Queue: 4 jobs
Job 1
Amino acid sequence: MTGTEVMPVDIDRELRALAQRHRAARGVGIQVLNLVGSQAENLLERLPDQAKQRLEEATTRALEVAMRAASQSRGVVPDQKGWLNTAMATAMGAMGGAGGLPTALAELPVTTTVLLRAIQGIAAEYGFDPGDPEVQKHCLTVFASAGPLADDDGADLGFLSARVTLTGATVHGIIARVAPRLATVLGQKLATQTVPLIGAAAGAATNYAYTSYYQQMAHVHFGLLHLSDRSGRTHAALIDEFRQTVTARN
């Protein structure tokens, strides 16, 4: 990856900082749940059957389009600050939610592109080359951390190890593995945007939550990889220590 020279680092301090980011990521979904209230239950059931059946296919296409667009845009548009990525996605969510399901579906690949580009920017912050196919696969695996509305609280830790061991797999193969989980997450987002009367507000809130979440999880993901490079500790060992740090402070 970076080949950074091993140097003395305060591993415990850095793991605690990453654990704090992890907790912040898990907390952003509460804003959305508070917004939609009781209507947040069984969100996926709000979607038409046809939309639910085609959601995974739409998610796969959105990831493929996002990967191409995010990578190609790097030579034209510089990486943005995290707050600006969040602001852009929030505005798009409001526009997507204003027209109900049709506009929410149209907004899906655009938001996915913004999210992926933000993840690539964070990878670059830690010294990784977003143009490297291995780094691109790592960027995609961040999406395997589910999302702030996900029911599986363990999913955001499982992606750190299980999804990254797919060495030798193509980017398309990674997309195929990530898409089913992301489809469920984005299905919840789409359903939230169809809440009567508050679709635009719900769209803005969900995009704010998702952008904040995935940026924090990207910091956790690439922060651990970078810490492994600098400390000489194996990535697997650091993941185990990170899990213990998160569990100890929950």
Job 2
Amino acid sequence: MRHTPHYLMTDPDEVKRLIRANAWATFVSPASTGLVASHYPAILDEEADGITIISHFGRPDEVLHELGEHEVLVIIQGPHDYVSPSWYAPGEVVPTWNHVTAHLYGTPEILGDEENYAMLARLTDHFEDHRPEGRHLHEDEAGTRRLAKGTVGLRMRVDRFDARAKLSQNKAPDVAANVIARLDASNPGLAEEMRRVHPPQPPM
């Protein structure tokens, strides 16, 4: 990503927050056949040190990615949207795109069958626990264990990350406030991210 110092997100806790809120990830591998990309859910392993994610690949994606043989790039995309220059002062004509994005780098560890099943159950619980009629793998363990054989689980400790929160930090407070107000109706998630870096100004 473009290196712009005031957009850099260097706090690991902020990267963790981004991952928690945005579980759909893009995995990119420099395989011997060329670049390969796949999309899977990824969640934090909250019990691990540092930033560690867990996920799974559907077979045969793990072969295409040569999973576990090299470093991969995992892209976490948070809220993002087009910002119109019509939201700025009269005469400004250059638009932009605000976003929160993290690039995570590491070499995945392939999970064994039992660890993979436990990870799949954990992944399912992550999304089902808050639902009033959520369902869980243990309700049909025999059937879900058969289906699990079509997946390969992974755990990846993040060795390094490159993250950006481009949220109109280069704009005056009143301009940023107007952008937030415009986004409140169309993209409240991005508006909330902007409020984190543009707290409301106290009344004069």
Job 3
Amino acid sequence: MKILFIAIITVGVSILALVILGIIIISIIRAAKTGGLSKNEKDIRAEETRMIQDIYNALPKMEERVEALETILIERGHQNR
């Protein structure tokens, strides 16, 4: 009876260990495929990337506008003298 009890416990622990190992392996594979990010996190990062690219692409126009304003202010300063 004691041997049967030990055998049942051993089999139960073995099955539990296999299940846990399987969950760990599946989690690792899933993380490797998705880069460790959920779909929502990927969408958020993609939106942030688009916003940063838009800002970066708009910077030359902003620089031109600032230079134009500086020119206007300098010309007005010379006219007021």
Job 4
Amino acid sequence: MPAPRAQFHDLLDRSVLVTGGGSGIGAALVEGFARQGARVAFVDIDEQASRELAERVADETGRAPLFIAADLRDTEAGRRAAETAAAALGALHVLVNNAARDDREPMDTVTEASWDESQAVNLRHFFFMSQAAAPHMRRAGGGAIINFSSIAYLLNMAEIPAYATAKAGIIGLTKSLAGKLGPDNIRVNAILPGMIVTERQKRLWLSDDAIAGMQERQCLKRSLTADDLVGPCLYLASDCSLGMTAQTMIIDGGAL
């Protein structure tokens, strides 16, 4: 499916920071915001893929996104990335917490170290990036934080206990941050993707049988791709959703 053609005119020149923006879902979001005329910065650990993306998006949209190299497991590095983005973009109106890694590890092999690693990669930085972005949003008169969770924690998947815990925790964090930041006109919502077929997923986890099985379960009988998440994210970032906070939006083709 092609990326959405809808135009959110209020996103023109709005300042947006996307975490994990170098590939997969994050790359689609970076391109999507750039096509709306937003000023976009993104954080990623993969420098080569990120620089290639920034060049391609600049060529195709005329809007050059700013790549900031950082490992978000390092809280201070994430904080510096937020400050760099705000300074370069002149403000910070939208934060998309997307960075994650869905490693498979069954219960019997999880260690304290692997558990803590999963929470650091998939949950902890959502809070600290939000904490770093909030003062800039207050100065801007408000903003939007969009947290990417997953339907994975609703599916009783045996091989991802740490990941599922993190993705469930994002929902609790979303609601808590919405309560705290609402008086500052900062909205906080979450998107829960279903099975999104990316090149990484196909390389590591998704067989043809798994994809076919999920399509059978879905109401929409096609594979979902990263582009299917762009429109919902743009909507939550835009003034179309000014009355919406502390909510979750499931984008799974009707699997649940």
